[in-house]
Design brief:
FAD/NAD(P)-binding domain, binds flavin-adenine dinucleotide, 8 helices, 2 domains, seven-stranded mixed sheet, 22% helix, alpha/beta
Length: 326
């Protein structure tokens, strides 16, 4: 059943989607937020007790204070904060409802979801990048003991775990797993732990490798995963690494099927990261009436926009909608 026409539908209840919805609402416009999962679903999926690199005031939306006794918030603090903001702003949320298509044009859209259809004058796409993992493209990747999302280490005490990748997520996972008693092997395609790993994590990892608590293979490619091994080619030749469990933490990418096939958003083909083509002043995409906000604006460059800087898209979009609601 088609709803009464709203001024805007925000797709994605992440921090930036919520920021957009509350700023749009403050313009006196009607808005609903649709998410295929929970409120701030990406943060729900982050590792248990994960520490943000940002200080709390840089994660705030809508001017709501994020008071914290400690210097850096953890995942649970952020979950609590964004839930409180959504409640305080009385945002209209449609959770566990996936957007599957978009018909119509500016002023007269129909957003298609798994639970029905929503009529709206404008659409804001704030769908992030955390739903599609970058795969290794090797045999065995689909086996049940291979995971692209790391949650917590405790199930792996006394077990052999191979962690693939050498950026922040893999570095943190390898350290936590080793400290929880897992035998950890890190497999890295490049020659070193990435320079982009945060300055308080990198030396910790390098020292654990040096003291032998974590075994690391650099300049190494994975050729296959079997139920008990990870097959690799190291500079010294092929090797079969024992593995009860594999974490392939090689990053994520926006859902291009959603962006191009379902929402029909033209991409910026002059940018190697292929973001949705959009006007940086208003964030309106090349499909008039559809706006892009947050991490999704960076395309494959997933570290271009994050909460700290992406949250400011909300005012630009709400301002544009207030001027031209249709
Ligand atoms: C481990 C980790 C630590 C981080 N630490 C920081 C930090 O300290 N500071 C910082 O600024 N950033 C940090 N980031 C980055 C930050 O979390 C992201 O940039 C942020 O989540 C982006 O917000 P967003 O609202 O754009 O997207 P997201 O938070 O990813 O929200 C997108 C939402 O869209 C929903 N969605 C997707 N497809 C559909 C669909 N078809 N229908 C309906 N809903 C859909 C998803 O379920 C999701 O809830 C971190 C990221 C990771 C992975």
């Amino acid at each position: 059943m088609l709803t009464e026409k709203l001024d805007a539908v925000v797709i994605g209840a992440g921090p930036v989607g919520l920021a957009c919805a509350l700023e749009i609402q403050r313009q006196g416009l009607t808005v609903t937020v649709v998410d295929k999962g929970a409120l701030v679903n990406s943060i729900v999926g982050y590792p248990t007790n994960m520490e943000f690199f940002s200080t709390p005031e840089l994660l705030e939306i809508g001017g709501h204070p994020f008071p914290m006794a400690s210097y850096k918030p953890h995942r649970e603090d952020a979950l609590d904060y964004y839930q409180r903001v959504a409640a305080a702003e009385k945002l209209d949320l449609r959770l566990y409802e996936r957007v599957t298509g978009l018909r119509g044009q500016a002023g007269d859209f129909v957003v298609e979801t798994t639970k029905g259809e929503i009529a709206a004058r404008a659409v804001v796409v704030a769908t992030g990048f955390f739903d599609v993992p970058n795969t290794l493209g090797i045999p065995g990747e689909e086996l049940p003991h291979v995971n692209h999302y790391y949650k917590e280490p405790y199930a792996h005490a006394g077990r052999t775990v191979v962690v693939v990748g050498a950026k922040n997520s893999s570095a943190k996972a390898a350290l936590a797993l080793a400290r929880a008693g897992a035998r950890v092997t890190l497999v890295v395609r490049g020659g070193e732990v990435s320079e982009s790993v945060k300055y308080w994590i990198r030396p910790d990892l390098l020292n654990r490798i040096k003291e032998g608590r974590i075994t690391a293979y650099f300049n190494t490619t994975i050729t296959a995963i079997t139920p008990g091994t990870v097959e690799v080619v190291t500079p010294a030749g092929p090797r079969s690494l024992p593995a009860d469990y594999v974490y392939a933490l090689t990053g994520y990418r926006p859902d291009y099927t959603l962006l191009t096939d379902m929402l029909a958003l033209p991409l910026d083909e002059n940018d190697a990261a292929r973001p949705p083509l959009h006007d940086p002043a208003t964030h309106e995409t090349a499909r008039p009436g559809v706006y892009a906000a947050g991490t999704v604006c960076g395309g494959l460059a997933t570290s271009r926009w994050f909460i700290e800087n992406g949250r400011h898209h909300a005012q630009l979009i709400a301002g544009a909608l207030a001027k031209h609601p249709a």
